[in-house]
Design brief:
The chain is of the alpha/beta class. It has a single domain, classed as 3-Layer(aba) Sandwich (Rossmann fold). The protein is about 50% helix and about 15% strand. It is built from seven helices and five strands. The chain has a five-stranded parallel beta sheet with strand order 3-2-1-4-5, with helices on both faces. β4, α7 and β5 form a beta-alpha-beta unit. The longest helix has 13 residues.
Length: about 130
């Protein structure tokens, strides 16, 4: 399985792993699965750090570099197809980061790992609940 981590799942993996459910932890650790991350999650992490909504040790860019070095991910790059898909998905809310992550899952045929009920209740892309 190719798993795209929602921003909060990626952050919890480094800052609060106890918040990730047993089933999702097993999926993330399974050697046969690939973990993917969108640049949108890195952007969102930087925004959260700037707004002091997440506490990272040291400089945010350095923290992100260390996190990516400790747990390498495949990069699900933002491209024109993802941008177009972000506007055609039927989501109940307009959060741009969620739209890009859902569209990324759709375009790259990834399973979006999330605890976000808005995304879990949506259609058009695959999800894996934090359980």
């Amino acid at each position: 399985m190719k798993i795209l981590l929602d921003t909060h799942i990626w952050l919890w993996g480094h800052l609060a792993p106890e918040r990730i459910g047993k089933r999702l932890t097993q999926a993330m650790l399974a050697p046969s699965n690939q973990l993917w991350l969108s640049p949108i999650s890195v952007w969102e992490c930087l925004v959260l750090a700037e707004k002091k909504r997440v506490a990272l040790k040291g400089d945010a860019r350095e923290w992100i570099a260390r996190a990516l070095d400790q747990a390498p991910m495949h990069q699900a790059s933002l491209n024109f197809e993802v941008v177009y898909a972000s506007r055609t998905l039927a989501l109940e809310h307009e959060d741009p980061a969620d739209r890009f992550l859902a569209a990324t899952a759709l375009v790259y045929d990834l399973v979006l790992a999330t605890a976000d009920h808005w995304l879990l209740d949506s259609r058009g892309f695959q999800t894996l609940a934090n359980r």
